[in-house]
Design a protein that fits this description.
Helices cover 34% and strands 24% of the residues. It has 7 helices and 8 strands. An 8-stranded mixed β-sheet has the order 3-2-1-4-5-8-6-7. Strand 1, helix 3 and strand 2 form a beta-alpha-beta unit. The two termini are 18 Å apart.
Length: 241
C-alpha cells in the first residue's frame, strides 16, 4: 500500500467551500451535473464489457463493491449504489463528505463516506474504482494512481476521467468556462492537466492496462457527449496487466 501524500490543502478547501451547492444543478457544480450522465454512460458500458454481464440489467453491480475517490458530494456514488454496488466514497474535504452523507440519507441510500488521504485509509480493495475529474487536482499524480491501483481487487475495473492538457482546454475550460461562471474561478490550473498518454504511462507503471478510452466533447447540437475528440476531456477504463 502506498501512503504518499496527494491531497493539496488549498484544493480541498476550494471544493469544501462549494459543498452546500454541490447538488444544485444550477449552482456552482452545474457543469458536473451536465457531465455526470456522459460519464455514467461510459461507466455502464465499461462494466458490461468487463464483466460480460446482462446489458439489460438495472443492477449490473449487484454483489460488487465500488470506491469513488474524490467523490465530492456523491454525484457518482449515488448512481453506482443504484446500479447495485456496495459503495464507499472518499474525499479530501470533510465538508463534501458531510454533504454527501446527508444527501444519501435523504435519498434512502446506504453509502459509506470518508474524508482523508486515499493511500492512508484502511478500507480494503474494491471491484470497481472510479475517480472523476480528480487527478488534475492532486499533488503527486504517480502516488495517486498507485494508491488507486492498490485499492483495486483482483479482476477489478478502474475508470478515470480528467481534462486533457491542450490549447483547446486552456482556452475553453479555463479561459471561457471560468470567465462566464460555468466553472468556479480557480477550479483548474492548466499546467496540472495530464494527457491521455501520460496517464496511460502512470497506469502502466502501477501495473494497469488501459482497455478503452473516449473523449468527452461539446457541441451546441449535442451538448456534452462521448466522442473520439479528446481535446477537452477524456475518460478511460483500465484493468490489471
Amino acid at each position: 500500500m502506498t501512503s504518499g501524500t496527494t491531497i493539496r490543502p488549498e484544493e480541498a478547501a476550494h471544493f469544501g467551500q462549494l459543498a452546500a451547492e454541490w447538488w444544485d444543478p444550477k449552482g456552482s457544480s452545474a457543469m458536473l451535473h451536465k457531465l455526470n450522465p456522459v460519464r455514467l454512460r461510459f461507466v455502464r458500458e465499461a462494466i458490461d464489457m468487463h464483466w460480460a454481464g446482462d446489458i439489460e440489467s438495472v443492477r449490473p453491480l449487484a454483489g460488487k463493491s465500488a470506491l469513488d475517490v474524490g467523490c465530492g458530494a456523491g454525484l457518482l456514488c449515488e448512481p453506482l449504489a443504484r446500479l447495485g454496488a456496495d459503495v464507499t466514497g472518499v474525499d479530501a474535504a470533510p465538508e463534501n463528505v458531510a454533504a454527501a452523507a446527508a444527501h444519501a440519507e435523504g435519498a434512502g441510500l446506504d453509502i459509506r463516506y470518508m474524508a482523508g488521504e486515499i493511500g492512508s485509509l484502511d478500507i480494503g480493495q474494491f471491484d470497481l474504482v472510479t475517480s472523476m475529474e480528480v487527478i488534475e487536482h492532486v499533488a503527486d499524480k504517480r502516488a495517486f494512481v498507485a494508491a488507486l491501483a492498490d485499492r483495486l481487487a483482483p479482476g477489478g475495473l478502474m475508470v478515470l476521467s480528467t481534462p486533457n492538457r491542450t490549447a483547446a482546454s486552456r482556452l475553453l475550460l479555463i479561459g471561457a468556462a471560468e470567465a462566464v461562471g460555468a466553472i468556479p474561478r480557480g477550479t483548474h490550473h492548466w499546467d496540472d492537466f495530464i494527457t491521455p498518454d501520460e496517464l496511460a504511462a502512470l497506469l502502466e507503471d502501477a501495473g494497469m492496462t488501459v482497455t478503452a478510452r473516449k473523449g468527452i466533447g461539446f457541441s451546441v447540437a449535442k451538448g456534452l457527449h462521448l466522442s473520439d475528440d479528446e481535446n477537452l476531456n477524456y475518460i478511460l477504463s483500465a484493468r490489471r496487466s
